[in-house]
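A reminder from the course coordinator: this example appears on the midterm review sheet, so study it carefully.

Given structure:
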């Protein structure tokens, strides 16, 4: 049975570099950093100072305050970005098509901020004062649930929780839903709002966060002096659509999604498997699924967290998959500018990968000043680069040994 072709017809985003796709992409290509000093929490409570917060984001510009108060930040970000993506796709959802349009949005930790606030209320004022919205605000699937309600999408509704691979897994899973014929369109990606007391404390405790006090250069993937990631927040949402369905309604088409790979390390709860073995299999799976030779790939948006082991092992994995071609293959980590958006990372980075294909320009890896001898590939250091590419890949790797890769291709009939 032939596979149905799936294309990307809409993009929506809120990120530390802008509250829409256009401004974020402009800043990415300019090599600007969205990382700054921690402002949402008491800075003196933590040794880590660098975070990538949204700037000038007011949810009341997008929905009524009464509705917003029933949602954790991560859900607010998902709803706003999904509305942008559907509008961008010029997709009208009504009773005639609602059951064929689904939602699949991932989140790594869901409503951590809500959990903290309501637990404090419980401790200080007792169970009677805990909000009746506590559970539906906290649970990670509520981004998908609220997006479905807000947009009227009645098809498959799901959420993938695979730590920092959640966004990419969600996009890949949604791709397969359309490919096998269970939906005509899917609203998909990732959302996260992890800048909270316990998330900060937890990631500092397991030594994952950078303690670099120079916040402007704290996120430095593949650099010898990297010491951990910078926590970021936001959402990246795509509209995926079956090709004939998109063409029939005259939808804009950004790119075609052609491959998906997903594997488990079966090794350690936080550390990647030696040599990036699980990532090797995810990338190989995605290429096989796409029917694409490794030499055809023109760009990789790397997971590139700025942690010592990830960057080293992801580099090793790319060498294993691409062989001699790895030396010619441009790779970049946009986390150098956005920070690490955890479960939303795969969503925003898929958008960057798609725009790199469409605009024929590769985002840089900023703050790459002292190359690590063990990270010796072409990471597009510090400045964007024009490149005539037709195939691009995006990697996401998560705690628990989750590995996910998606492959996009320039659209042609």
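Designed residues:
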């Amino acid at each position: 049975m032939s596979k149905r072709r799936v294309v990307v017809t809409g993009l929506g985003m809120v990120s530390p570099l802008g509250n829409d796709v256009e401004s974020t992409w402009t800043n990415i290509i300019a090599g600007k950093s969205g990382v700054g000093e921690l402002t949402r929490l008491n800075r003196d409570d933590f040794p880590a100072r660098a975070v990538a917060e949204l700037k000038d984001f007011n949810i009341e510009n997008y929905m009524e305050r009464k509705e917003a108060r029933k949602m954790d930040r991560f859900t607010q970000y998902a709803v706003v970005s999904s509305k942008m993506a559907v509008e961008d796709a010029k997709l009208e959802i009504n009773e005639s098509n609602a059951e064929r349009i689904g939602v699949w949005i991932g989140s790594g930790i869901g409503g951590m901020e809500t959990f903290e606030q309501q637990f404090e209320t419980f401790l200080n004022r007792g169970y009677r004062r805990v909000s009746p919205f506590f559970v539906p605000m906290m649970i990670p699937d509520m981004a998908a649930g609220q997006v479905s309600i807000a947009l009227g999408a009645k098809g498959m509704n799901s959420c993938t929780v695979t730590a920092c691979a959640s966004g990419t897994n969600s996009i890949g899973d949604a791709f397969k839903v359309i490919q096998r014929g269970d939906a005509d369109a899917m609203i998909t990606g990732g959302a996260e709002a992890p800048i909270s007391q316990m998330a900060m404390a937890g990631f500092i405790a397991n030594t994952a966060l950078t303690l670099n006090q120079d916040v402007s250069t704290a996120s430095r993937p593949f650099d010898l002096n990297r010491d951990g990631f910078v926590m970021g927040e936001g959402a990246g949402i795509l509209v995926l659509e079956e090709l004939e369905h998109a063409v029939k309604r005259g939808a804009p088409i950004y790119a075609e999604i052609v491959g998906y790979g997903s594997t488990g390390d079966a090794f350690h709860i936080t550390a990647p498997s030696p040599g990036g073995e699980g990532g090797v299999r995810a990338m190989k799976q995605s290429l096989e699924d796409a029917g694409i030779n490794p030499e055809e790939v023109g760009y990789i948006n790397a997971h590139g967290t700025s942690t010592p082991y990830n960057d080293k092992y992801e580099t090793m994995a790319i060498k294993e998959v691409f062989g001699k071609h790895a030396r010619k293959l441009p790779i970049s980590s946009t986390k150098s500018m956005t920070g690490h958006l955890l479960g939303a990372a795969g969503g925003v980075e898929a958008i960057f990968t798609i725009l790199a294909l469409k605009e024929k320009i590769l985002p840089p890896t900023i703050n790459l000043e002292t190359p690590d001898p063990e990270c010796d590939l072409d990471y597009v250091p510090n400045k964007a680069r024009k490149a005539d590419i037709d195939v691009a890949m995006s990697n996401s790797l998560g705690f628990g040994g989750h590995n996910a890769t998606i492959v996009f291709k320039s659209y042609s009939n």
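The first strand starts at residue 6 and ends at 14. DSSP finds 13 helices and 15 strands in the chain.
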